[in-house]
Specification:
The structure holds two protein chains of two kinds. By secondary structure, chain A is of the alpha/beta class. Chain A contains ten helices and ten strands. The radius of gyration of chain A is 19 Å and the shape is globular. The mean pLDDT of chain A is 92. At the A-B interface, α2, α3, α4, α5 and α6 of A face α7, α8, α9 and α10 of B.
């Protein structure tokens, strides 16, 4: 395996009396799809929020490309190269699909308030470049014909895809997808799985939280299983399928050591 | 500038340029250019507020304070210290921007009602300072004998001249804001408005952008204040009281906060309602004022500026579905 792009060490998060995440360790090698699975409330989204800096961990460290990023602000982490989508869609509803993707380029482009208001030549050049790139990304995810429509007018599946295009516009090294297949039909899920492979081909590592097991098992290189905030298993899909603790967690059987 | 076409702005500019000549010929419109000077002053403020409230999604109930800072900077600087009016205008703008930065950094961490309360309190504090610092501001009596403006020997000493000055400045501000909202920074403002968590994840420093929108709106309000005192040659604290802050918000809501046209339309309509059209109703004025606002909010939640597109939509649906 190649060098890890993301390393999680001893990561815990306490919300008042609730230990949402307890001493979780794992790493994500560059260029793979790594999935996080686990029952509802296992701490998957909490983990995403810690990685992307939405809130700081109680203890532990996150490092990205060998750099400690714990405690940095979300916009700094995005700039370093971690992007994400959201479990409940967070598109910018009144902005067009194209503008949504253009927002993703914010951290990769320049242009001050004064320069933008005066429409300086440099601002116009940047605007042309960003528009072109955003259009290419919409084509990449298959939403080119939606470019001018307000994001809120798109069906849920397309809003989720739009979030992926927007996240890719930040030119990330790692993209965190939070339940991208949630609410999608079978055909849309198949397209999503192709899209995830295409994202890998662009050289972007994928960290996936997903409940759709057939998608997870078919696409993941490695899987981490969380339950009640703790890592109970880690391995390849075939290892995970046979893990007694995982089977117990999902099917509710009494595992020997539970 | 894509959504707001250059053509409509040009038509608007030409309309403004010929209006005083039309008003001269049509009976009953003689006062209108003068009322439009006030509307222009308010438009400058509402343009900035529209960027802050409508686009960046942050409320302010204290913008009368920035208008006041600009107005008093110009008044004190020119009437008391005999400084150059343009220098005072710049200094006032600078002070307003610094104050906006100082107030904005902590208070823009707040949301919704709390931000409204914080900016409201700020406005009241500044009002009290204008009222109590008698040696500088003249206290409740205010300052008078503020000189007019001139540029390269050309004096803006008639209604017509000032009308053209103020609306030229408004058009420039409009052009600036229209460029801004269609730019990287403007998109970041709208993104912060729509979803802070997604904006952050896209690498937008949300507090920095909120503060930038706040400082810009303060600068425009300050500019409006400076120009205003050079027109009426007088300022007192009640000009920049809490009600004025509220009135500015009423203007952008009536016009439509999410549109720069709405900012101008709202400022013009509210100014004409309170300075001109409702005088005949005497004590009923406030009631009718409220009724108009209520009707707009109920039937045109996107403001009067959305009326043309609404009418077009009604037409398309045909007369059968006309009322709904």
């Amino acid at each position: 395996m190649s060098e890890p792009i993301l390393e999680i060490t001893g990561l815990s998060k306490r919300f008042g009396g609730l230990l949402a995440l307890a001493e979780v360790n794992f790493s994500v090698p560059a260029g793979v799809v790594k999935s996080l699975i686990g029952p509802n409330g296992a701490g998957k989204t909490t983990l995403f929020n810690l990685i992307t800096g939405i809130f700081p961990p109680t203890t532990g460290e996150v490092s990205f490309q060998g750099k400690a990023i714990t405690g940095r602000a979300p916009h700094q982490i995005a700039r370093l190269g971690i992007s994400r989508t959201f479990q409940t869609v967070e598109v910018f509803g009144e902005m067009s699909a194209l503008e949504n993707v253009m927002v993703g380029q914010h951290c990769r482009s320049q242009g001050s308030l004064l320069g933008s208001g005066l429409r300086l030549p440099s601002v116009r050049r940047t605007e042309r470049r960003v528009t072109k790139l955003a259009m290419e990304l919409l084509e990449f995810v298959g939403l080119a014909d939606r470019a001018g429509q307000p994001a809120s007018s798109l069906p849920l599946g397309e809003q989720k895809t739009l979030e992926i295009a927007r996240a890719l516009a930040t030119e990330p090294g790692l993209i965190c997808l939070d339940e991208p297949a949630g609410g999608l039909n079978e055909q849309e899920t198949r397209q999503l799985s192709q899209l995830i492979r295409a994202i890998l081909d662009r050289g972007v590592t994928v960290l996936l939280v997903e409940h759709d097991m057939s998608l997870v098992m078919s696409i993941s290189d490695e899987i981490v299983v969380l339950q009640y905030g703790q890592k109970i298993a880690e391995g390849t899909p075939s290892q995970i399928k046979q893990d007694p603790q995982v089977i117990a967690a999902y099917l509710g059987e009494d595992a020997d050591d539970a | 500038m894509k959504n707001i076409s250059r053509r409509s702005l040009l038509i608007f500019a030409v309309g403004l340029a010929v209006f005083p000549w039309v008003a001269k010929m049509v009976p009953g419109l003689g006062d209108y250019p003068e009322v439009l000077i006030y509307a222009g002053v308010y438009s400058l403020i509402t343009l900035g507020l529209s960027v802050l409230v409508g686009f960046a999604g942050q409320i302010s109930l204290g913008h009368a304070a920035f208008f006041g800072i600009g107005a008093y900077a110009s008044a004190v600087g020119t009437a008391t210290y005999n400084l150059d009016p343009w220098l005072c205008l710049l200094l006032g703008g600078l002070v307003s921007m610094l104050v906006a930065f100082g107030v904005g950094v902590p208070s823009l961490k707040l949301k919704g009602h709390y931000l409204a309360m914080a900016t409201l309190a700020f406005g009241i504090i500044v009002f009290i300072i204008f009222n109590e610092e008698v040696t500088i501001t003249g206290g409740p009596d205010g300052l008078n004998r503020i000189p007019g403006l001139s540029l390269f020997g050309f004096e803006f000493n008639t209604t017509l001249r000032f009308y053209y000055l103020i609306w030229s400045v408004v058009l420039l501000a409009f052009w600036f804001c229209a460029n801004l909202v269609e730019s990287r920074i403007g998109r970041a403002f709208r993104a912060v408005h729509a979803s802070e968590v997604a904006a952050m994840a896209m690498g937008i420093n949300i507090s920095s952008h909120k503060v930038q929108a706040f400082v810009l709106s303060a600068a425009l309000a300050s500019l409006a204040g400076s120009l205003y005192v050079h027109y009426i040659n007088f300022i007192n604290p009640s000009t920049c009281n809490l009600f004025f802050s509220v009135k500015l918000i009423i203007m952008i809501i009536m016009g439509g906060a999410q549109s720069l046209w709405g900012a101008v339309v709202g400022a013009v309509i509210v100014t004409f309602l309170s300075n001109e059209w409702l005088h005949a109703f005497q004590e009923w004025e406030v009631l009718i004022y409220g009724a108009v606002l209520l009707l707009v909010i109920i039937f045109l939640p996107d403001g009067l500026a959305s009326l043309p597109s609404k009418v077009a939509a009604w037409r398309r649906r045909g007369p059968a579905g006309g009322a709904s």
